[in-house]
């Protein structure tokens, strides 16, 4: 009889232990799922981590720069001339470029000077060592933007692929983290 009581106690203790373990496991799993969802929402709706590869935005943004792009600002504040934007290309590549032309703008380069709607632009942010190649006027389409890299000699941009659809802009502005950047 005493053995039956002890066995019953062991079975109850074992059942209690299983319930406690299940409770901790479910709590831990719940925390992991919530952390994943919060991280996913944060990086897709607020700030997106960015690692810059290439020299097309120098001197403003160096190769190896690590930072965050503002995903929400594109929708909240819109896209303006001279904004730095992140563009999702069809091949999955992400570009970081500067907005030069807005819908219905006329963009051209004559004698190495950028003209927007016939007005010469003074571009302090451009790598001064690079000289732009002249190109004939281009009309930016509806719901499109014209983008260029600040290092015009090293940039593959709208001068080669044409205007970019506004829907392809996934973020704007880049907030670098200098202590984490891998650039020179």
In words, what does this structure look like?
This protein has 184 residues and is an alpha+beta fold. Helices cover 29% and strands 29% of the residues. It has helices spanning 2-45, 71-76, 158-161; strands at residues 47-51, 66-70, 84-88, 94-101, 106-110, 113-116, 119-120, 135-139, 144-148, 164-165, 169-176. It has a seven-stranded antiparallel sheet with strand order 1-2-11-3-4-9-10.
In short:
With 184 residues, the protein is α+β, with helices and mostly antiparallel strands.
Outline the fold blueprint.
Elements lengths: L1 H44 L1 E5 L14 E5 H6 L7 E5 L5 E8 L4 E5 L2 E4 L2 E2 L14 E5 L4 E5 L9 H4 L2 E2 L3 E8 L8
Antiparallel strand pairs: 1-2, 2-11, 3-4, 3-11, 4-9, 5-6, 5-8, 6-7, 9-10
Task: Spell out the key features of this protein.
29% strand, 184 residues, 11 strands, 29% helix, single chain, seven-stranded antiparallel beta sheet, alpha+beta, elongated
Which term fits the overall shape? elongated
Share in helix: 25-40%
| Main beta-sheet strand count, sense and barrel state | 7 strands, antiparallel
Q: How many strands appear in the DSSP assignment?
A: 11
Count of DSSP helices? 3
Percentage of β-strand residues: 25-35%
Order the strands across the largest sheet as they lie in space: 1-2-11-3-4-9-10
Cα end-to-end separation? 80 Å
**Average pLDDT level:** 86
Unreliable spans are: none
């Amino acid at each position: 009889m005493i053995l039956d009581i002890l066995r019953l106690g062991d079975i109850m203790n074992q059942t209690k232990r299983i319930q406690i373990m299940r409770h901790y496991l479910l709590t831990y799993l719940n925390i992991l799922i919530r952390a994943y969802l919060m991280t996913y929402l944060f990086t897709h709706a607020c700030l997106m981590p960015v690692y810059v590869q290439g020299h097309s935005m120098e001197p403003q943004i160096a190769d190896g720069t690590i930072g965050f792009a503002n995903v929400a600002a594109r929708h909240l504040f819109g896209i303006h001339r001279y904004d730095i934007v992140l563009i999702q290309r069809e091949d999955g590549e992400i570009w970081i470029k500067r907005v030069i032309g807005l819908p219905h703008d006329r963009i051209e380069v004559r004698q190495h000077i950028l003209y927007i709607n016939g007005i010469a632009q003074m571009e302090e942010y451009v790598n001064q060592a690079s000289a732009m190649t002249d190109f004939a006027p281009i009309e930016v389409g509806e719901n499109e933007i014209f983008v260029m890299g600040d290092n015009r000699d090293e940039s593959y941009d709208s001068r080669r692929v044409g205007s970019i659809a506004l829907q392809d802009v996934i973020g704007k502005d880049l907030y670098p983290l200098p202590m984490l950047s891998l650039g020179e």
